[in-house]
Amino acid sequence: MKLIKIIGAVALVALLITVASARQKPAPAQPNSGAAPSGPAPELVIESFTHDFGEVKAGTPLRYAFIVKNKGTADLQITGVSPG
Question: For residues 41 and 31, which has the higher predicted lDDT (pLDDT)?
Answer without folding.
Answer: 41
